[in-house]
Structure formats: C-alpha cells, structure tokens
Specification:
single chain; 199 residues; alpha/beta; Rossmann fold; 5 helices; 36% helix; globular; FMN_Rdtase-like_dom; Flavodoxin; oxidoreductase activity; Flavoprotein-like_sf
C-alpha cells in the first residue's frame, strides 16, 4: 500500500512548513498500518493552470499525476490563508478535475477506488470550511473519504504562532492523525480488494 502527500505550502522546500510537518506526521501514522508514503511539496513543481491532464509547454502535472495514480491514498495538506486553502491546493483540485473524463477499462473514473484524506493548519480560523471544500472536490473527482478523514490545527485568534513552532503535537491532533491513518488504511484495503462496480 502506498500514500502520496501533496503539501500545498506556498513555501519552497528550502523553507520550513507547517503543512509539510503535519503531512509527515500523518504519513508516520500510516506507516504503522503498513502504508509507505512520501511528501511532495507542490510549489517546487511547475504546475500550469488549467483543467486538463496535460497543459503542455513544461507542465509538470503529468509526472505528479502518475504518482497519484500509483498511490492508494492521497493526502492534501494545506495552510490557511485569509480563511481559505492555499492557491496551490486550489490548483491541485483544478488539475484533478481532468480525472472525471479519464476512465479505466471498465469505464470507471480513474480515481475510483482511491482514498483521500486532508490536513489543514493555520494561525487563523478556516479549517472546517477548507476541509469541507476539499472533501467535496475530492469526492466529486472520484476519491473516497474515510470516517474522520480530516485533521487540522488552528491557533487561537490573533496569535501568530505556527503549527511548526509548537513544542509538541497537541494530544487532540495526534489522536486525530492516528484515527485518520487507521481508517484510511482500512478503507484503502477494502477498496483494493473490492473495487466499485462498473456502470
């Protein structure tokens, strides 16, 4: 079993990122359930705007799309900006829209049978709204969301501390990460063993 985490930070890999940190924590929990994974910092890649599988002219989405196709579980991790997901996360959703017209040999959309989970961090409110938006877009694309498939951390209002600046992971977040991973791994195994019926 494999997982791919797309960290949708606005910062390149040379910089520390709360979105990267929580993604790594979730992958660590997944490993305890026999799921190997990796984090990709999306902003390090030239992902063109658009809703096609390949926008041409140096677009690096097709290579990233191959890695999504190889994974059983997709994690989208995003910071909160002005109450919304990052523009990088929004672009990922827009590019995933192309999967609605990509099908397997039996006519199912290409993401059927894959599990998606989410992680949201921010020193401002917005995690519930962002999680809801991610859930809807991922489900529309064909992914399956497990019970309690989203984890998040928001700081108290007007406090500039970031998730990566905490001395330790809050118990509630650690517990949610563990539940998310356990449920995602369980669901992914069920779907691998018994795919959705073809239409």
């Amino acid at each position: 079993m494999r997982a791919l985490a797309l960290a949708c930070s606005l910062k390149p890999s040379a910089e520390r990122s709360s979105s990267q940190l929580i993604a790594e924590q979730v992958l660590g929990e997944l490993r305890s359930h026999g799921v190997e994974g990796e984090v990709v910092r999306v902003v390090d890649h030239d992902i063109k705007p658009g809703v096609e599988a390949d926008m041409g002219d140096g677009d690096e989405w097709p290579r990233l799309r191959e890695r999504i196709a190889e994974a059983d579980i997709l994690l989208i991790s995003t910071p909160t900006w002005v109450g919304h997901m990052s523009s990088v996360a929004q672009r990922v959703l827009e590019r995933l829209d192309a999967e609605l017209s990509e099908t397997d040999d039996e006519g199912r959309p290409s993401m059927f049978g894959k599990v998606a989970v989410t992680a949201v961090v921010g020193n401002e409110d917005g995690a519930h709204k962002i999680t809801a938006d991610l859930y809807q877009a991922l489900a529309d694309t064909g992914f399956t969301i497990p019970a309690q498939g989203g984890t998040y951390w928001n700081n108290e209002a007007m406090n500039p501390t970031d998730y990566q600046d905490l001395d330790e992971t809050p118990k509630a977040v650690a517990s949610t990460n563990a539940t998310l991973a356990r449920n995602a791994a369980h669901l992914a195994r069920l779907l691998r063993a018994d795919q959705y019926p073809a239409g």
